[in-house]
């Protein structure tokens, strides 16, 4: 069954923290809007590589600490991570900020969009990309690029995708990249992991299998693989429900319930179960291990990354980038 799509509403906390707790600011200050049927245009004013120009989200000044050792050296990238380890270590970041694990570009973007229909949008994005390249070629000091945000292919009905391999092939010569939304696989009506690895692999395989594509053209380098820094807190009883949570919410839940994190071998994600006022919840939130697995996948394919959103995660997430 294809994954259900849901609007990105403001994350909710099922068990509110103290009133003086501060939500982590968004690094970009900009949100993408999910439009029907599936696509949003993204005009990239600066497609930034992660070479020191994409900074960490502003931390809580009283809690952020630096350490000489990375999360790998501290033994935190593992399946059997505990709540205590996350609570103790999530504000400690490596002081080796110039050393990055992931060599490919990480995306920063703003979002204008066209809502007059999918066919018109394809033609529009093609013309817009050509126009931007024309402007860039006339001024070496102004580099404009166009990144097209695309949905992940459905697991079924390959011939009826919102955006498929032939669409990618049609636009590849006119654009600079494609931001692939490989997150939100699950929702309140079907609780589960955010981005099962097999689904991510299926999405990349499907999009990069267009017939007639030139063997010399490596389209994988045009893909920015979507990585979520937020998570979900789903209700498992009293009907369905729940929604997105940020790193702040996640930390609060760990502090309050001291849950035991489980590693799902099928999705390669961590989750835990807790009960609040007689209602059982399932929480899926990225960890250093789940992020590392997906970064390895992106590295193997030669893709970049598109992170949603930087300010919603934990500080030590950046040590794996």
Automatic annotation (TrEMBL):
GO terms for molecular function: chitin binding; oligosaccharide binding. Residues 1-29 are annotated as: Disordered. Residues 1-11 have a biased composition (Basic residues). Residues 25-313 form the Chitinase II/V-like catalytic domain. SUPFAM superfamilies: (Trans)glycosidases. It is found in: Lysosome; Secreted. The chain crosses the membrane at residues 32-52. Keywords: Lysosome, Membrane, Secreted, Signal, Transmembrane, Transmembrane helix. It comes from the Eukaryota. GO terms for biological process: carbohydrate metabolic process. GO terms for cellular component: endomembrane system; extracellular region; lysosome. InterPro entries: Chitinase_II/V-like_cat, Chitinase_insertion_sf, GH, Glyco_hydro18_cat. Belongs to the glycosyl hydrolase 18 family. This is Chitinase domain-containing protein 1.
């Amino acid at each position: 069954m294809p994954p259900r799509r849901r609007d990105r509403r403001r994350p909710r906390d099922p068990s509110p923290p103290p009133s003086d707790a501060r939500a982590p600011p968004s690094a970009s200050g900009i949100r993408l809007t999910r439009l029907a049927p599936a696509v949003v245009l993204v005009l990239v004013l600066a497609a930034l590589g992660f070479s020191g120009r994409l900074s960490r989200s502003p931390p809580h000044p009283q809690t952020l600490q630096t350490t000489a050792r990375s999360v790998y050296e501290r033994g935190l990238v593992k399946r059997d991570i505990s709540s205590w380890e996350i609570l103790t270590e999530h504000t400690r970041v490596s002081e080796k900020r110039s050393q990055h694990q992931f060599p490919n570009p990480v995306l920063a973007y703003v979002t204008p969009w066209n809502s007059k229909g999918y066919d018109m949008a394809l033609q529009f994005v093609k013309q817009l990309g050509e126009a931007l390249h024309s402007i860039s070629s006339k001024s070496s000091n102004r580099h404009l690029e166009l990144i097209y945000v695309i949905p992940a292919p459905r697991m079924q009905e390959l011939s009826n995708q919102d955006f498929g391999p032939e669409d990618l092939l049609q636009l590849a010569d006119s654009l600079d990249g494609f931001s692939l939304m490989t997150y939100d696989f699950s929702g309140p009506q079907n609780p589960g992991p955010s981005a099962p690895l097999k689904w991510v692999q299926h999405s990349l395989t499907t999009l990069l299998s267009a017939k007639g594509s030139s063997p010399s053209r490596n389209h994988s380098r045009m893909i920015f693989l979507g990585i979520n820094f937020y998570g979900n807190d789903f209700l498992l009883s009293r009907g369905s429900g729940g929604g997105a949570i940020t790193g702040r919410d996640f930390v609060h839940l760990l502090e309050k319930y001291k849950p035991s994190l489980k590693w799902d071998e099928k999705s390669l994600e961590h989750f835990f179960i807790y009960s609040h006022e007689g209602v059982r919840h399932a929480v899926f939130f990225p960890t250093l291990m789940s992020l590392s697995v997906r970064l390895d996948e992106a590295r193997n394919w030669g893709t970049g990354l598109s992170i949603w959103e930087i300010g919603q995660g934990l500080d030590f997430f950046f040590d794996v980038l």
